[in-house]
Amino acid sequence: MAKVYLENLGWKIIDQNFYTRWGEVDLIMDDGEKLVFIEVKYKSTANWGTPQEMIGPHKLRQIKLTAGLFLDRHPELRKKYESFRIDAVCIGEEIKHYQNLDG
Amino acid sequence: MLAKTKCISPWGITPVEIEIEVNISKKGFPGFTVVGLPGKTAEETKERVKTALQNSGIEFPEAKITVNLAPADTPKDGAGFDLPIAIGIMAAAGEFVIDESSYYLGELGLDGRLRPGKGVFLLALAAKERGIKQIFIPSECSAEATVVGGVDIYPVINLRQLIGFLKGKIEIEQAKKEDEAEGWFDEPEFNFSEISGQELAKRALEIAAAGGHNLILSGPPGSGKTMMARALSGILPQLSDNESMEVTKIYSVSGNIPPGASLVHQRPFRNPHHTTSTVGLIGGGSVPHPGEVSLAHRGVLFLDEFPEFNRSCLEALRQPLEDGVVTISRAAGTLKFPAQFMLVAAANPCPCGYRGDPKRECRCTSWQIEKYQKKISGPILDRIDMHVAVPAVDITKIVNHENKGDTSETVRRRVEKARNIQRRRFSKLKKIECNADMKNKEVEALAQVTPEATLVLKQAVLKFGLSARTYFRLIKVARTIADLEESVTVTQLHMAQALQFRVKSE
Fold it and tell me: Which residues of B sit within 8 Å Cβ distance of A?
């Protein structure tokens, strides 16, 4: 669902569910300028908290670490893009997209 | 949206105005951060505020919330920031407009209830000084604030009530000063009349109470040292209004005022256990808090089993004993806690406790005794005005209920009379409440010692090799004895009595 949402924005998918022993990045996409690492959170009801609450400093650290590993494995991408970004897409009753978590 | 609320955080016992800036930004990932050197408790405010707001029927804004506690370089701690932060968030969210000239203080429960907290008295004082119009405090602490007066005091029960008030929907009745707002009073455990025998020690306690002198009681186990020291709180005079303000300030900062109570009228009596740490005794911590010596300000610090205290603890007492203040230096600054207390120490003469007892033999080796007595250093003993030996009680006196002597009430009346004389003497001087507070300059100007008495003292000092400090301390004790007898001058007789508590007959 998040992938469809972002592809509608014109972003291109590069990889998904990139997994290492230190963490996972749900989507890696190109927004036309930057390479974006995206965390997707889905909650069917708000009874157990909002998806936003599930993304804390620990999760952010995991994503950063994994993103670094991804770039190590794909040196050509590191050269291609000048900068990188971490985003989150939270799916509850509506879809919310937050840009640049780390800044 | 940006909103500002104000609060007071104590730095020592000086109030520091803290401006709480709350910014809500709809851009960015939702989150809640508190900056400005919050301590652990102040950091955890996030969870309390969020839940309390939700449970008070307010939708917590889903946005990036940044709270800054300014000035940013003063370390701050405590749960009192809960209320100003919660109000700031709502104001920043546009729920209502707030008056800048108000202080907020209070810890929030998860249900939105306001819990009683520290520092309400200090907040009220600071608000009055700085011309703040209104203060919002937990309702249980309102008595503490009303004694100050001069500001509009709104006692708040819960967040929902305060929100209603700030939106102009409901009224909160201002707290008024109640006439019967009396300080709490603990009944002393022992009455003076319950102590059989020990006339000399009882006399010494009376003198010490009348002049605020330091005292050490030494004697075998079971002779009643602890009992006498505890009975002491019953013969101490009430605090004067000035003293009461000082003590209440310290108690308010340390959270020692029970809910509903207002000014402290009873003299503090503190008896820390001998395992107390230096910081616990003197005060300190990264956000410095008052120690036992400051909590005993204008009252009694009773150190039972004096030699068992940590050596460094006892040595740290030197400065407060002499100056009446504790100075604590931290990276963030230096601060002072008042610590004008009366030290009452109790000790055994040796490890087994029976040295000098006529009936039981002391089983300690001379090496042990020396080691034990070395634990209390000379400089500390030199600062103690009266050294009193408490011999074992004659058991027949207890069985026959002999020698009941005066009750605490009678003794207290005498003590208060002597204190009144002293108060008249020092009426022009600030900071001096009793004879023991006199500095050398005042001793020379005000003690009124007769030439004969001076001669007696001079001879004693030369014969027993007493220090210059002891010289002045002896005059102060003699002055108190003269006050108890309502004598204008200090005569030979008074001086001789003072000397008997100081000079050991070896």
Answer: 28-30, 62
